Automatic annotation (TrEMBL):
InterPro entries reported for this sequence: PSP1-like (IPR047767), PSP1_C (IPR007557)
PSP1 C-terminal domain residues: 62-147
Gene Ontology cellular component terms for the protein in this record: cytoplasm
Identification of the protein by name: Cell fate regulator YaaT, PSP1 superfamily (Controls sporulation, competence, biofilm development)
Pfam families given in the database record: PSP1
Length: 291
């Protein structure tokens, strides 16, 4: 008897487009295959997008059932058509009830354990009457799931202002916190409207390179003066892409140093206490060592 090794697979759900890990997936399951897993929603058809390193401390809560068969795929397609009709019905009923909710998608797992309706709403929605009417007409267990606006775009897909498909619908696993302060840290114009995504929130990509700018706190401030080999230079700009600092002298001579070279040439940024007027009577807050 041949023993097939099992590994952890990276999967993508077809309803929410979110990613997760599933343990104990046979090694012969490859990227691009469809498998059936058991989740809190029921039996689901999911896409394998690759392999993943298992987290022994936090094992997956999803159970691998089988590699998807043609029958599984046909059932999924049939349920998608049925869910689309149910979504239109739900939208009509919600409108009649005056509910302020943006219904995105209806989803029926393979084993028809329930039908889920995903929606976006600015506030809390009392959908008890809606659920009663849906259950009466659909003869199924109804579950309403509220999602955030970014989750909504991830589900529906969209083209971003960059002209490419939104990152959330392509590869983003978890949404990082994005705030206005990130604009300043990355030397971007402090105009949030220019960096707002389709979802109405600041674009997720603002968080992609934020770690590259963490060195900023250790750099001399723009327009401050530093001394190198007895000559004074003004800090003109930073280039975080090339990881360089640009200096200019009084006569217009320009020098550039990599961030890694700053310690070698004796330039560092003082702590607030070192540069405060109470300690040394004022100053620029920039210290040159060994010049």
């Amino acid at each position: 008897m041949i023993t097939i090794d099992t590994k952890t697979a990276r999967i993508r759900f077809l309803d929410t487009h979110k990613f997760a890990d599933v343990d104990d997936v046979p090694e012969n399951i490859k990227k691009g295959d469809f498998i059936v897993v058991e989740t809190e929603k029921g039996e689901e058809l999911v896409l394998v997008v690759g392999r993943s390193i298992p987290d022994r401390e936090n094992p997956s809560t999803y159970k691998f059932l089988r590699k998807a068969t043609k029958k599984d795929v046909n059932i999924f397609d049939k349920h998608e058509k049925e869910a689309e009709k149910a979504l239109n019905l739900c939208k009509k009923l919600a409108e009649n009830l005056g509910l302020k909710m943006n219904l995105l998608k209806a989803y029926i797992p393979l084993n028809r354990s329930k039908i889920l309706f995903y929606y976006v709403s600015e506030g809390r929605v009392d959908f008890r009457q809606l659920v009663k009417e849906l259950a009466k007409k659909l003869k199924m267990r109804i579950e309403m799931r509220q999602v955030g606006v970014r989750d909504g775009v991830q589900m529906a897909g969209a083209i971003g202002v960059c002209g490419n498909q939104c990152c959330c619908s392509l590869f983003i696993d978890k949404f990082d916190t994005v705030n206005v302060e990130m604009l300043e840290e990355q030397n971007l114009p402090p105009t949030p409207s220019k960096f707002t995504g389709i979802c109405g929130r600041l674009m997720c990509c603002l968080a992609f390179e934020i770690e590259n700018y963490s060195i900023r706190k250790d750099l001399p401030e723009i327009d401050s003066e530093v001394e190198i080999n007895g000559e004074m230079y003004r800090v003109k700009e930073y280039d975080f892409i090339k990881e360089k600092i640009i200096l200019v002298s009084d006569i217009g001579e320009t020098l550039s140093f990599s961030f890694d070279e700053l310690d070698n040439i004796g330039i560092k940024r003082k702590s607030p206490c070192e540069g405060c007027s109470m300690k040394n009577g004022g100053g620029t807050g920039i210290e040159s060592e060994g010049a």
